[in-house]
Amino acid sequence: MSEDDGEDWFERALREDSDSTTDESGDDGPDADSDSATDDGPDADQASADSPFEEDFAGAVENAPDIDEEPASDDSPFEEDFASAFENAPDIGDAPDGESGEDLFSGGGPSGGEQAAEPFDDDAEFDSEIERIDLGIDGLDNMILGGVPKRSLISIVGSAGTGKTTFGLQFLDEALSNGNRGVYLTLEEAASRIYDTAEEKGWPFRQYADEGRLAVVHLDPVEMANSLASIRNDLPELIEEFGADRLVLDSVSLLEMMYDRPSDRRSEVFQFSKSLKEAGVTTLVTSEASSDTPYASRYGIIEYLADAVFVLQYVRASDFQETRLAVEIQKIRDANHSRETKPYEITDEGLSVYRQANIF
C-alpha cells in the first residue's frame, strides 16, 4: 500500500465527517442562529478544529508503514489453520446427563405452563482472570455472568427495525460516558445521522467528538470495496494510535454483499474480523438477519467468527394482537449466560431488556 492510498480513503471519510457535523448541527437545538446557516452552535464550531481524526487518525495513516498484501492462498481460513486445528483437537466426551436442545429456550406463557430448566444464576460468584466489560444494555447485562470478555468480537443479528444501530450506539456510550474512547464506522448512515440518533437518546456524541474521544467515520461501500485491503491493513494501527477502547461497525452485511463468490466472501470477512481482533479493541458488528430465519445472519458467516452473538427478533403471538421484540444470547465464549429469550423495548433512552418477564 502506498502512502497516498492510505490518505485517499481515510482523508475522504474524515472530510465527510467534518463537513456533515458542521453543516448539520445548526438544526439541532435552541442554540442555533436562524439568521445564519454558518452559525452552528458550540458543538459544530469545534467539530472540525477538534476532530480526533485530523491529528491522531490522519497522522497515523500518513505515518503508517507500507504493508504488503499477502497472497490469497495464505489468507484462507479454511485450509492449513482449520486442518491443523482439527488434527490437534482433543477428544471430547459426551454432554453431561440432563442437557439437551430443549434447554436453549424457555417455554410457558401467561397460563403458567412448564418452563425449561434454567441453570443460570446471576447471583453466583464468577471466578475468572479474564477482564470483562458491561454492554450498557439494561437487563441484558444481568443475563451475562461477569460480563463479556474484553477485546471480544460481538455480533448483533437482527432484521430491520429491531434496534441494531441503537444497540451499537448504546454499547459505545457505555465506554464514552466512563471517560474512554470509541470509534464508530458506518457503511449505511451519514456521520451526521449517527450524531442525531445518539443525541435523540440523550448520548452527547458531538461533545465526545469535541473532546477527542470519539470518531464517527462514514465509509462509502464502493470506496471501501476499492480500498478494502488498505483499510484492513491500516485499521489495527489506526485504532491503537487513537487509543480506542470500543469499536462499532454498522454493518458487516454490506461488506459481505461486495462479494459474489462464497469463498471470497468467507475469506474477506474472516480477514477483516481478524484485523479487528488484532487491534486489541472490543468490537461490535451489526448484521442483517437471514430472510429464512431470524436466528442466523444473512450469509451465516459472522456468527461463527464472533466471540459473542446476540439475536434481536420480532415475536408474534398466535392471535396476532401484539408484536413484541425479543433478545436471545446465542453464545458468549468464556462466559456463562442465560439462555432464555426475553422481551425488550426501544425507548427514548435506548434498549431495555425485561429479564423477569416472559414473551407471552
Automatic annotation (TrEMBL):
Transmembrane segments: none annotated. The keyword ATP-binding applies. Residues 131-360 form the KaiC domain. Residues 1-119 are annotated as: Disordered. Residues 19-43, 65-82 have a biased composition (Acidic residues). It comes from the Archaea. The keyword ATP-binding applies. InterPro entries: Circ_KaiC_arc, KaiC-like_dom, KaiC_dom, P-loop_NTPase. CDD domains: KaiC-like (cd01124). GO terms for molecular function: ATP binding. Residues 9-18 have a biased composition (Basic and acidic residues). Keywords: ATP-binding, Nucleotide-binding. This is KaiC domain-containing protein.
